[in-house]
Inverse folding.
C-alpha cells in the first residue's frame, strides 16, 4: 500500500473515531449533570444507589465496560433462553451495533467522571451565595441557573478539558470490539503489510485532534476570564 492509500484508510477510521467522541461528549455532558443531581439528592436510596453506581464505573477499567456492554446482551439472552426456554436473540452482530454499544459504554463511563467534576464545581461555590439567593426569594432552580451555573462552568473548564482530551485517546480502546476505528485500521495495516510506521502515523492524527481541541478549549477558558471566582 502506498502512503496515500494508508492515509485514506486512516482518515476513514478517523471518521468512526469522531463518531465515538462526539456521541459520547454530547450524551455524557447532560447525563453527568443528572447523575450529579441524583448523587446530591435528599432521597437517601437514590443518593446511595447513584454514588454506588459511580463508584463501580470509576473503579473498573473502561475496556471491561466496553466488553460488558458489547457481549452482555447476548450472554443475558442465552441465560434466559436456557432458563425459560425462550428464543431471544440479543447478540450484537453488525459493526453499527458494536459501535452503538461502544458509545453507550463510553457515555456511561464519562458521565460518571463528569458528574464528579460537576459535583466538585457545585460544592466549590460558597454556601453564602445559596443563602443570599434564598433571601431574595429565588427558587432552587433560579438560584442554580442564574447564580450558581456560571460559577460552576468557570470552575470545571480546566478539569473537564483534561477529561475531553483523555476521551480522544480512550477511543482507541474501542478496538477490542470493533474493527472500523482508526487505531484498529492502523493495526490491521501493520499486520497486513508487516510495517510498523502506520501505528505511529495514527498517533499523529490523535495528536492533531487533541491539538485542535486544546486550542478550542483554551479559547473557551479565556472567554470565561471575565467571570472571576
Amino acid at each position: 500500500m502506498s502512503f496515500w492509500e494508508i492515509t485514506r484508510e486512516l482518515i476513514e477510521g478517523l471518521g468512526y473515531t469522531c463518531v465515538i467522541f462526539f456521541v459520547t461528549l454530547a450524551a455524557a455532558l447532560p447525563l453527568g449533570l443528572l447523575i450529579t443531581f441524583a448523587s446530591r439528592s435528599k432521597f437517601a436510596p437514590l443518593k446511595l444507589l447513584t454514588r454506588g453506581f459511580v463508584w463501580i464505573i470509576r473503579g473498573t477499567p473502561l475496556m471491561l465496560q466496553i466488553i460488558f456492554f458489547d457481549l452482555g446482551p447476548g450472554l443475558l439472552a442465552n441465560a434466559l433462553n436456557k432458563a425459560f426456554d425462550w428464543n431471544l436473540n440479543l447478540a450484537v452482530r453488525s459493526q453499527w451495533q458494536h459501535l452503538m454499544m461502544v458509545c453507550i459504554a463510553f457515555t456511561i463511563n464519562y458521565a460518571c467522571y463528569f458528574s464528579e467534576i460537576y459535583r466538585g464545581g457545585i460544592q466549590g461555590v460558597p454556601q453564602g451565595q445559596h443563602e443570599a439567593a434564598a433571601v431574595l426569594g429565588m427558587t432552587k432552580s433560579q438560584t442554580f441557573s442564574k447564580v450558581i451555573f456560571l460559577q460552576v462552568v468557570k470552575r470545571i473548564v480546566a478539569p473537564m478539558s483534561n477529561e475531553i482530551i483523555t476521551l480522544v485517546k480512550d477511543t482507541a480502546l474501542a478496538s477490542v470490539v470493533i474493527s472500523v476505528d482508526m487505531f484498529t485500521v492502523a493495526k490491521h495495516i501493520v499486520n497486513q503489510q508487516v510495517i510498523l510506521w502506520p501505528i505511529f502515523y495514527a498517533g499523529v492524527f490523535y495528536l492533531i485532534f487533541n491539538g485542535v481541541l486544546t486550542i478550542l478549549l483554551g479559547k473557551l477558558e479565556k472567554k470565561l476570564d471575565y467571570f472571576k471566582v
The helical segments are 3-39, 44-59, 62-84, 95-123, 127-135, 140-170, 182-193, 197-223. The radius of gyration is 22 Å. The mean pLDDT is 87.
